[in-house]
From TrEMBL:
Coiled coil: 21-52
Species: Arenimonas fontis
Name assigned to this protein: DUF2884 family protein
Lineage top rank: taxon: Bacteria
Keywords attached to this entry: Coiled coil
Amino acid sequence: MKHAARGFALLMLLPLAGCGLEGAQDRAEDVARRLESAAERVEARTSEIAERVRRDVAGSNLRLGGGADALPRAEITPEGELLIDGKPLGLGPEQRGLALAYRNEVIGVASAGAEIGVEGAALATRALGEAASALLSGDTAGIDARIEAEAERIRASASALCDRLPALRQARDALASAVPEFAPYAEMELTDINNCNKEI
């Protein structure tokens, strides 16, 4: 990512070569400032977007997936009821508790994933600004280290997300065991968990 950002920034600055040096420098500085400002705006919205995801999902039914297209639509309500084809199963208190536990795990993973995605977008934009400033000033010594440090922070967040998958799978298995009707909708294989950190 860091080398691509530097290359893209260089391409952005090349058209300025035909201008006078002073004018090119002013325009390049403006490009760098705009990119940095854009990164700050994206970063500022990270928590807002993640919170919106949590709020939207928390207040609506959680749509369940399933491996077979022929499966009827299934959802878990905010109260912990399981709906299949729009009809409640009439879960008991313990079953509702398990349904809510699974639902909360799914919401937590989805919210964390949304936040990581926005952080990645902010990093990409910030990297362009850093590269533009460095190419303009000739001070490229620290840019790789700074961008790599930011990327490492995002990798750590992604790794923490992977660490949540076993709890999600455990909640899924507990619900599937207590509510057989839920079992066909239970997705996630053990390989999904094992491969998660390998793909970061």
